[in-house]
Amino acid sequence: MPGNDFPLPLETPPMEARTAEVLPEGNGPWQYEPKWDGFRCLAFKDGKAVDLRAKSGKPLGRYFPDLTAAMQRLDARDFVIDGEIIIEIDGRASFDALQMRLHPAESRIRKLSVETPAQLILFDMLVAPVGKVMLELPLSDRRKALETFVSKAPIARFRLSPSTTSVATACEWLQGAGHGSTDGVVAKMLDEPYRAGERAMVKVKRLRTADCVVGGFRYLNGKRQVGSLLLGLYNDHGQLDHVGFTSTIANDERTALTQRLEALRGGLGFTGKAPGGPSRWSTERSGEWEPVRPELVVEVRFDHVTGERFRHGTRLLRWRPDKAPRQCTFEQIE
To answer: Do 252 and 296 share a structural domain?
Structure first.
């Protein structure tokens, strides 16, 4: 762990981003970067001491001993870098593999660190080697320092995030986001300092829609009203696979919707991949769900797909009584 005389405290929060619908172009020079879909991380190195910190400030080092060891092998000392931890399997980022690292057993973590090694995608430098604080310098200077740092760090675990000043290139990245390692584009002012803890960047996600079958639902905690709809799509074998959920239900619609769903109970719900039971990231209640006959179709907005599932909760846009459930297939999100 870095000592008390290190130039930047471990509690330093990363610079964050505010959400926008379109990429900014005016009001200054912009640098655009892919928005990586992993664990945000500030990595500190003080001599041989290494500390990895999540966006929340919590230590990440015990979950990623492979990254800690890789940083210790670097010749560079006394620096702080900002990046995103990802794990790739068969050339594609796997958020599930990242979550599996959050395990209480050290032996399990060590095994996974060998089987599915992590990478740190670097996009900013807060302290350059030998302790030079970069926070007040413009991004253009910090980026040059980061590029120099990566060029002298010949270890595959560290990768430089691409960047561009071309909005056309950024738009191409945005169109390709949502299936692999990225889920959007981040825009930063080239002449701005690093504003720790502030939403001084702009993030734009690629938002798409899909028509999904309601295969089940969950009640609100402690209430006999629907809290979320469980969504499904038909696979190539004609089975209904669970792909995610939506909980954006208006309060004044819950009573009528609950009655409608309860009238459909009794079916199999999902005939393919079904919602899982409780896990180390969920509560006992979150494993409980009510299957319904697959008759209702909703259109939802989503931003990212991984492992044939929506990575985040979706937003319910409208009901689709005009759409046959069997028309709701994976082709929409491939």
So the answer is: yes
Structural domain count of the chain: 2
Better-scored residue on pLDDT, 115 or 178: 115
Query: How far is the C-alpha of 328 from the C-alpha of 248, rounded, in Å?
Result: 20
Same domain (yes/no): 184, 226: no
In terms of domains, do 111 and 221 share one? no
Distance CA 215, CA 230 (A): 6
What pLDDT digit, counting tens, does each position of 220-258 carry?
988 899 999 999 999 999 999 999 999 999 999 999 999
Instruction: Give the number of residues written for the chain.
Output: 334
User: Which position has the token pair 């945005």?
Assistant: 174
User: Is 220 in contact with 286 (CB distance < 8 Å)?
Assistant: no
- Residue-wise pLDDT for 180-196, tens only, equals 678 889 999 999 999 99
Report the catalytic residues. Answer: 35
Structural domain boundaries enclosing 249: 208-332
Two tokens, residue 215: 């295969």
**What is the per-residue pLDDT for 286?**
47
